[in-house]
Amino acid sequence: MKYVVVMGGVISGLGKGVTASSIGVVLKACGLRVTSIKIDPYFNADAGTISPHEHGEVFVLDDGGEADLDLGNYERFLDIKLTRDHSITAGKIHHYVYEKERRGDYLGQTVQVIPHITNEIQDWIERVAIVPVDGEVDPADVCIIELGGTIGDIESTQFIEAFSQFSYRVGAGNLCVVHVGLVPVLNVVGEQKTKPTQNSIRKLREYGLTPNIIACRCTKELERSVKEKLSLFCHVPVANIFTLCDVSNIWRVPLLLRDQKAHEAILKVLNLESVAGEPNLEEWTARADLYDTLQETVRIAMVGKYTGVSDTYLSVMKALLHACIACGRKLVVDWVPSTDLEDSTATVAPDAYNTAWSLLRGADGILVPGGFGERGVEGKILAVKYARENDVPFLGICLGMQLTAVEFARHVLKLPDANSTEFDAKTENPCVTIMPECSNEGKGGTMRRGSKRIFFKVAGSKSAKLYGSVSHIDERFRHRYQVNPNMVQLFENSGLQVVGTDKTGERVQIVEIPNHRFFVGVQFHPEFKSRPSKPSALFVGLIAASCGQLDDALQDAACNHEPQQNRRGEKRLAASDLGDGTCRSKRQVKACSNSNDTDEAQDVTTC
Questions:
Q1: Closest by CA position to 298, among listed 544, 591, 557
Q2: What residues does the CTP synthase N-terminal domain cover (predicted)?
Q3: Beta sheet of 241-245, edge-to-edge order
Q4: Catalytic: 525?
Q5: Among 61, 26, 194, 80, which Cα is nearest to 478's?
Q6: Where are the alpha helices (DSSP H) in 104-223?
Q7: Is 548 in a helix, a strand, or coil?
């Protein structure tokens, strides 16, 4: 197994996650199989209980693991499925060591950071790195490891020491250290300054690690003299110093690395030059070029309570972007704080109230994502009501779906006190109730999480058609509450159709209003499985409906669901079986026609 460790200095938020993912993309394009691990030095067991304002969204994995949002980057970039063990935290490591001490596994030793904590970190990495994540049975060739935080943070010290020891454990030619540093430009002098990166690497070397590669975050390409200066003071060859400058879209980062021959430097350090080929990134190039040429916009109102921090809804944003590429539209997101839609805001902050409603009324589509807590709930219900009454395309996710039930009960079933017991435990009309297997006694790891199977009840529903008219799908969940099964018949009798359930047929997973342009609520989180080349079906439905392409999207989904044999002998869809020109809808042609180069546009696989 070969390892690439990505760490950073100076400040957080430099883009270590995107850098690690992009390195993985380039190595995968060279013909290597890649896996990923994320290390977070905080003492939480996982990201499940951390405020979105602190670390952005909680990314949910197939096995129910609640992880840092960077694991979402890895899955989207590399098209892999990670497990909870691919997310390492200081809390997990220390808890594991403590349990071993209590069992007597250390046979009376004095348990210390060195060697017990550092050994456990190394053992965990080696154990998880060999777990296949791409559907194959053998271990990957390269494991990309991202260390969160910055060099010099006291909580990161134990991990830096572990990697220093790890370099000797795995031996020369098996570990490549990539340091992401900041090279700012001060407006006063207009000169690229190397001192921040020099200092962070000096600190790293104090811990016993010297980087093999330096990736410099900056606004424009590094000057040759700047690279030479970094090389001199950091003891890294000029050929191993790369620019990570600002680019037009995130899909250009792997192309940026490829163009600078970063893969050649990494392959040389890892002694993989003889087994890797030249990177084939045609699909990434086509996608990046197509995105940059899109002109026609689609406006989506994102109604939530964490609108001030975009990372809170990172996967939702990426899923919207994937769907927009598929529909040939440029995404414009209008962030609408749900509290600003509420009547109370009209009195205390009329400007915010008017702005929020102006954004909502001007949107082509409305999305209410998941969330927790009572703040802003009434505003979300008002957004659902507006979408339902005005035939505006709507997608409600998790809490967003639960609030569609509350809104429908209040304004269609005429039950004004209808509510979720999460917000009103004494309501006489509980539309949403806590699931029997869940409780509110503890917060961490107490929800229904991970990949679950959903069965379609209505084959002709928009949701079923968007998924290719299959009988069932697997999506990821993270919730404690559900639509009250006792109210399902009332909903259906009045026009809110339950089109997807769990295997019992009782737990509501998907609802629709059939005579609405597009009004869908789902209990699961479809954004977690969206990929650049395989956008989420429901997000495609929302975007397509928002720009008048839903019929074409439904046609595409029907055409692309051609069966082929998979490894287990089961039937599954394969667009590649359709042949050239089959089912090329007006929507696809429109997406390509937005490109400046028609010939190139015809070859774009993502449109």
A1: 544
A2: 2-272
A3: 87-89, 34-40, 142-147, 2-8, 175-182, 213-218, 241-245
A4: yes
A5: 61
A6: 118-129, 157-170, 195-206
A7: coil
Report the percent of the chain where pLDDT is more than 90. Answer: 81
What residue has token string 């060099």? 151
Give residue for tokens 């439905």: 541
Backbone dihedral angles phi then psi of residue 317, each to the nearest 5 degrees: -60, -45
Task: Please pick, among 398, 431, 547, 592, the residue that the annotation labels catalytic.
Answer: 398
> CATH 3.40.50.300 in the chain, residues?
2-289
Q: Catalytic residue, from 234, 527, 547, 607: name it.
A: 527
Q: Are 278 and 30 within 8 A, CB to CB? A: yes
Q: How confident is the model at residue 604 (pLDDT cuts 50, 70, 90)?
A: very low
Q: Is 2 in contact with 144 (CB distance < 8 Å)?
A: no
294-560 placed in CATH 3.20.20.70: no
The domain 2-289 belongs to what CATH superfamily? P-loop containing nucleotide triphosphate hydrolases (3.40.50.300)
55-97 pLDDT tens trace:
889 999 999 999 999 999 999 999 999 999 999 999 999 999 9
Catalytic hit among 86, 179, 525, 561 = 525
**DSSP character for 116?**
I
Distance CA 226, CA 207 (A): 25
Return the amino acid letter for 591: A
Query: What is the spatial distance between Cα 334 and Cα 74, in angstroms, rounded to a whole number?
Result: 27
* Assigned token pair, 152: 């010099």
Q: For residue range 123-180, list pLDDT tens digits in order.
A: 999 999 999 999 999 999 999 999 998 998 899 999 999 999 999 999 999 999 999 9
Enter the pTM of the model.
0.90
Q: What is d(CA 171, CA 174) in angstroms, rounded to the nearest whole number? A: 6
C-alpha radius of gyration, the chain, whole number: 25
For residue 549, how far is the Cα from the chain centroid? 26
**E strands present in 422-551:** 430-434, 448-456, 472-479, 481-483, 497-501, 508-512, 519-522
pLDDT at 579: 33
Which alpha helices (DSSP H) does 531-585 contain, by range?
Answer: 537-546, 550-560
Confidence of residue 561 (pLDDT cuts 50, 70, 90): low
364 with 300: CB under 8 angstroms? Answer: yes
What is the C-alpha to C-alpha distance for residues 570 and 557, in angstroms, rounded to an integer? 19
Is 296 tagged catalytic?
Answer: no
Say how many CA atoms lie within 13 Å of 106 toward its Cβ: 17
Q: CATH 3.40.50.880 spans which residues of the chain?
A: 294-560
570 is annotated as an active-site residue: no
Residue 475 exposure: Cα atoms within 13 Å on the Cβ side: 27
Q: Where are the beta strands (DSSP E) in 443-489?
A: 448-456, 472-479, 481-483
Do 136 and 33 contact (CB within 8 A), yes or no? yes
Tell me the two tokens of residue 390: 């005005």
- State which amino acid sits at residue 188: V
- Average pLDDT rounded to a whole number, residues 386-402: 97
